Automatic annotation (TrEMBL):
<dbReference type="InterPro" id="IPR045028">
    <property type="entry name" value="DinG/Rad3-like"/>
</dbReference>
<feature type="region of interest" description="Disordered">
    <location>
        <begin position="321"/>
        <end position="340"/>
    </location>
</feature>
<keyword id="KW-0378">Hydrolase</keyword>
<comment type="similarity">
    <text>Belongs to the helicase family. DinG subfamily.</text>
</comment>
<keyword id="KW-0067">ATP-binding</keyword>
<dbReference type="InterPro" id="IPR014013">
    <property type="entry name" value="Helic_SF1/SF2_ATP-bd_DinG/Rad3"/>
</dbReference>
<dbReference type="InterPro" id="IPR011545">
    <property type="entry name" value="DEAD/DEAH_box_helicase_dom"/>
</dbReference>
<dbReference type="Pfam" id="PF13307">
    <property type="entry name" value="Helicase_C_2"/>
</dbReference>
<dbReference type="InterPro" id="IPR006555">
    <property type="entry name" value="ATP-dep_Helicase_C"/>
</dbReference>
<dbReference type="GO" id="GO:0004386">
    <property type="term" value="F:helicase activity"/>
</dbReference>
<feature type="compositionally biased region" description="Basic and acidic residues">
    <location>
        <begin position="322"/>
        <end position="340"/>
    </location>
</feature>
<keyword id="KW-0547">Nucleotide-binding</keyword>
<dbReference type="Pfam" id="PF00270">
    <property type="entry name" value="DEAD"/>
</dbReference>
<dbReference type="InterPro" id="IPR027417">
    <property type="entry name" value="P-loop_NTPase"/>
</dbReference>
<dbReference type="InterPro" id="IPR014001">
    <property type="entry name" value="Helicase_ATP-bd"/>
</dbReference>
<feature type="domain" description="Helicase ATP-binding">
    <location>
        <begin position="10"/>
        <end position="290"/>
    </location>
</feature>
<protein>
    <recommendedName>
        <fullName>DNA 5'-3' helicase</fullName>
        <ecNumber>5.6.2.3</ecNumber>
    </recommendedName>
</protein>
Length: 662
């Protein structure tokens, strides 16, 4: 029985009382074609297109042909939205048109599920002893509540998933959950048959559609496809986030505190000398970091690299000792296995740092509460994505913001697709030589637009009369501009700032000059601030990076988005600086490939906060004149929705006043 994608989409939209959109139909048909011909697809679907149905409907068609589809999202929130709302509604609406009802499941990383072994046997203290008594105070109360919740979840046959747990802090969850490396494994754990994480994996193996997140997709790739069930299609939603999430998954950290903790946990299983060697190495690492400036570690930083080598060697010796006479009977509570996992992780990271490969960037940061530590991440993840994610399966990558500078090339390069492999719109999929594993990866790019009329709904105002930003932060003229804009709008403003200091200074300036209510990120939990912002249209919200991408405020709550400056990465940010330099050394333009691409993506995300419905109206005000005065400005403007542009301050203030009174 053949199933027509367009017919299925119409049934889905009708079933959820929606409205068919041309862009959504075009997207669904393109996704279906890519899945069947085996080409990769980058599809930009603007806000309001109905992107989720645009890929879920063809995923259903593919799934009923007994070809499993994995859908990956950047955030656990969207992952849960798909599982709890979108997919069930879609299946209900299309059930009569399908030969069978496809099965779906959600799969997250192990640390997102409560661990029955940790709950029943206890969590390790600083010396590695499993302690059943919860810590004192509020954290301890939360731990007790989480333990009771987990047992009830087990009795109810529920998922034991953190998203459905009682309100808690991170420290409390770590008392009832476990990292994958420290897990005993289903065969060795006395509670393996009841394990929430193992049940989630088993449900995923039975499912036609598995919904996961970018972090677990990355781990699956690095672990030779042993984490997620086998699949031949992956749909990557919020694909603009994929390179950053893969970088995070492929990165690591090494600090004296982590090294010392691992040594103490292992001490009761080995001779003291072996544990003391690792503690001595942690002291050497601490001394080396104390004598090092923040920033990238170069080959000339011999003290740091030698200290990392000491940690590597001591961890190797300790791990070898832990493996001697390693018998399950000697480790009834699993504490030794968990200790081995911690020491092995220290060894792996220290070995990677000490090697200082050209493929990695190592840098040192100084954290206020936790002191100095080393970070390591790949110089680029394009090759990893190309070979581990895209090489032998079809990928559909979609987002509301994938075209930068007017085309897909910048994003394509970041995810491992070469512009030279791009297929023309009417080109047929080439016959590929299966023996040539390193051959091209054909792909297409498709922009299905947006149902919104940006030229009529939104004004892009560039405050060209203001001075260019400087390192000292916002000045008097910028504060006056912000006050005038927000006053004309009557509040209703989302302020997106390049730093916490700038957001706080602008908040103080508006509070001093007006009676308007302004919330600032850091005043309370972000969720609470967002709710208050939405509930009171005259309230404004100022903040930093998480607001650029992570907040949805349709309607009169937000008539004005203020962006204080072009969000270039900081020149002293080690990973971005290293990537930019590598492009320059290869003969490219590092600034455009790295800094401008980063800024263009954030600007597209930030300006996208304004128009969320067809009835929305408003202004995006960019206070950085460089977007129209510098040569790279054309690239950045081409990355934004096609709003009506102006530098006329009086027209903008008048438009905001009219919106306020309407």
């Amino acid at each position: 029985m053949g199933v027509d994608v367009k017919e299925l989409l119409e049934a889905a939209v009708s079933g959820i009382a929606g409205q068919t959109r041309p862009g959504q139909v075009e997207m669904a048909q393109a996704v279906d074609t890519a899945m069947h011909e085996g080409s990769h697809l980058l599809v930009q679907a603007g806000t309001g297109t109905g992107k989720s149905l645009g890929y879920l409907v063809p995923a259903l068609v593919h799934a009923i042909e007994d070809r499993r589809v994995v859908v990956s999202t950047a955030t656990l929130a969207l992952q849960s939205q798909l599982v709890d709302r979108d997919v069930p509604a879609l299946l209900d609406a299309t059930e009569k048109l399908l030969p069978r009802r496809p099965k779906y499941a959600i799969q997250k990383g192990r640390n997102n599920y409560a661990c029955l072994h940790r709950i029943r046997e206890g969590a390790p203290d600083e010396d590695g002893m499993l302690v059943d008594v919860p810590p004192a105070g509020e954290i301890g109360r939360q731990v007790v509540e989480l333990r009771d919740w987990a047992e009830q979840q087990l009795a109810d046959g529920a998922a034991g998933d953190r998203d459905h747990a009682p309100s808690h802090q991170y420290q409390a969850w770590q008392q009832v959950a476990i990292a994958a490396r420290e897990c005993l494994g289903a065969q060795k754990c006395p509670y393996g048959e009841e394990c929430f994480a193992e049940k989630a994996k088993e449900e995923a193996r039975k499912a036609d559609i598995v919904i996961t997140n970018h972090a677990l997709l990355s781990i699956d790739a690095f672990e030779n496809r042993t984490v997620l069930p086998e699949h031949d299609v992956v749909i990557v939603d919020e694909a603009h986030e994929l390179p950053a999430r893969v970088t995070g998954a492929a990165g690591d950290e090494l600090s004296p505190q982590l090294v010392e903790r691992a040594a103490k946990r292992a001490r009761r299983f080995v001779d003291d000398d072996k544990a003391d060697d690792l503690i001595d190495a942690s002291d050497a690492l601490r001394a080396a970091l104390d004598g090092t400036r923040e920033g990238r570690i170069e080959p000339s930083n011999t003290l740091v690299l030698e200290a990392a080598g000491l940690v590597r060697d001591a961890a190797r010796g300790l791990y070898s000792d832990l493996n001697k006479k390693s018998d399950d009977k000697d480790d009834p509570d699993g504490a030794k296995r968990q200790s081995k996992g911690a020491v092995k992780e220290i060894f792996d990271v220290a070995e990677r740092v000490a090697a200082l490969s050209d493929a990695d960037v190592v840098w040192m940061i100084d954290r206020d509460r936790f002191g100095r530590e080393l970070r390591i991440a790949p110089l680029t993840v394009a090759g990893l994505l190309r070979e581990l994610v895209l090489r032998d399966r079809t990928a559909v990558l979609t987002s509301a913001t994938l075209t930068l500078g007017g085309d897909f090339d910048a994003i394509a390069r970041q995810v491992g697709l070469k512009p030279s492999d791009k297929l023309d719109d009417d080109a047929e999929m080439p016959e590929l030589d299966e023996a040539d594993e390193r051959g091209p990866l054909p792909w297409r790019g498709l922009d299905v637009g947006s149902p919104f009329e940006y030229e009529k709904q939104a004004i892009l105002y560039v405050a060209k009369h203001l001075p260019a930003p400087h390192r000292d932060g916002l000045g008097k003229k910028q504060f006056e501009e912000i006050v005038d804009l927000i006053t004309a709008a009557g509040g209703r403003t989302l302020g997106l700032f390049s730093s916490r200091r700038a957001a706080e200074a602008a908040t103080a300036a508006v509070r001093e000059a007006t009676d308007l209510k302004v919330l600032c990120q850091g005043d309370a939990q972000l969720g609470e601030l967002a709710r208050e912002f939405v509930e009171d249209p005259e309230t404004s919200l100022f903040g930093t990076l998480s607001l650029w991408q992570g907040i949805d405020v349709p309607g009169s709550t937000c008539n004005l988005v203020i962006i204080d400056r072009i969000p270039f990465p900081r020149p002293d940010e080690p990973l971005m600086a290293a990537r930019q330099r590598a492009v320059d050394e290869a003969g490219g333009n590092g600034f455009m490939s790295v800094a401008a691409t980063h800024a263009g993506l954030l600007l597209a995300q930030g300006t996208g906060r304004l128009i969320r419905r067809s009835t929305d109206r408003g202004v995006v005000a960019i206070l950085d004149p460089r977007i129209v005065t510098q040569r790279y400005g054309g690239f950045l403007r081409a990355s934004l929705p096609p709003m009506w542009p102006t530098a006329d301050r009086e027209k903008v203030l008048g438009a905001l006043k009219r919106l306020q009174s309407s």
